[in-house]
Specification:
The protein is mainly beta. It has three domains: 110 residues, Thrombin, subunit H; 86 residues, Phage tail protein beta-alpha-beta fold (3-Layer(bab) Sandwich), CATH 3.55.50; 68 residues, no CATH class. It is built from six helices and 21 strands. Strands 1, 2, 3, 4, 5, 6, 7, 11, 12, 17, 18, 19 and 20 form a 13-stranded mixed beta sheet that branches. The longest helix is centred in the last third of the chain and has 14 residues. It is globular.
Length: 375
């Protein structure tokens, strides 16, 4: 769509294929949103003639006889392809234009996890299978869509004895896998790529370690690569959760406060505020001590991000796309806010002639824990 960036749109019932040129010519904008802890979504906007056969084609594809129409969006930046979205259409809207010759067709959808929400498998048994094995078996149904499981075993591996208990599924595949993740303080999401047609289904802890992405530079003359950047510090957001652990001998519940200390999510800020709120997590007394602690640590992490940032950038100026659920460095905004951040969400906005991103950042406190960030 512009020099240095090439957009590929693929559509099909199971295995998507490149769309014809007439559809690309009608495409006016693409929006893809990826958020940590949530499903990814996309929106395609077309400007069509009121008599165009494309309107009927897309509307019919949204229902029978093709209940799931797969969409793949690939952006090739300086020769390197990146899969921005691999999902299914879920909604079609047509808005008449101001003139009699054109209208706007807007197609919305979600990532491949939407396919896990249609059928209720309540009651399906999983004899002698820990949560990790249950997740792997459920995700095996979606191998036809290129879904590859990435499952991190929990430290509280529990294999139920069939003569005592047989776990049974509750709800749809997505609801049950999400519940199993919540039970041990994990997250679940499907990430497109790395190659077209492949998807990684991640079931594991939130990880805030690894190689950071190139730094976001603000107010640094020729090195500036962001268009806007602002930060917010809310010191009274942090809270201290308390879990109840029951003593097996005396049957007396013991309250245990849990700070946001996690080796897979180390602090990114040196100065953290003191928690001003204390709250209890209900239902933890009936769990094992290890399971209660894992859930408490996950809840503590939910309120730990007292520093948040937002901004926008031009992808060509930045040199690549900024990815959500990873670390990124920030430079040029002062000692209090410079340093590493976790990218909580990214929205790709692609139009003919431009490719921009809006993003959100988060971390636990002020002042960087590292002296420098990768440029």
């Amino acid at each position: 769509m512009l020099k240095g960036v090439h957009l590929t749109l693929m559509v099909g019932p199971a295995v998507p294929i490149p769309v014809p040129q007439v559809i690309l010519d009608a495409l006016t904008s693409v929006q893809v949103t990826t958020t940590a802890g949530k499903n990814s979504g996309f929106q395609l906007t077309f400007t069509l003639s009121n008599r165009s056969p494309l309107q009927t084609l897309f509307l019919l594809a949204g229902g029978t006889p093709i209940p799931l129409l797969r969409v793949m969006i690939i952006a090739t930046i300086n020769g390197t392809p990146e899969v921005l979205m691999d999902g299914f259409m879920t909604d079609h809207q047509i808005s008449p234009g101001s003139d009699a010759g054109h209208s706007t067709l807007t197609i919305s959808g979600e990532d491949l996890s939407v396919a896990m929400k249609y059928i209720d498998f309540t009651g399906f048994p999983f004899p002698a299978m820990p949560a990790e094995a249950r997740v792997a078996l459920i995700l095996a149904k979606y191998a036809m869509f290129g879904v590859v499981p990435l499952i991190i075993p929990s430290i509280m591996l529990d294999v139920p004895i069939p003569t005592e208990k047989i776990p049974r599924q509750e709800g749809t595949d997505f609801d049950y896998v999400k519940k199993l993740a919540d039970d041990v303080g994990y997250v679940f999401y499907i990430n497109p790529g790395p190659a077209p047609g492949m998807n990684t289904a991640y079931w594991g802890p939130t990880i805030r370690v690894g190689v950071p992405q190139p730094a976001l530079n603000y107010d640094m003359d020729s090195f500036t690569n962001v268009e806007a950047l602002s930060f917010n510090y809310v010191s009274d957001q942090k809270a201290l959760p308390i879990v109840w652990i029951q003593n097996e001998e005396t049957k007396i519940p013991i309250p245990v406060p849990l700070p946001d200390v996690n080796p897979l999510s180390p602090p990114l800020g040196l100065v953290e505020p003191i928690p001003r709120k204390i709250y209890e997590i209900e239902g933890t007394a009936k769990l094992t001590p290890l399971q209660a602690i894992l859930i408490g640590l996950a809840k503590a992490a939910d309120t730990a991000d007292v520093v948040t940032g937002s901004g926008s950038l031009d992808v060509l100026r930045y040199g690549q796309t900024l990815k959500a659920r990873q670390l990124v460095g920030v430079r040029g905004v002062g000692m209090a806010f410079d340093g590493l951040y976790f990218v909580t969400s990214v929205t790709h906005n692609i139009k003919r002639g431009e490719y921009k991103q809006s993003f959100s950042l988060a971390r636990n406190g002020l002042i960087s824990t590292v002296p420098v960030v990768p440029a």
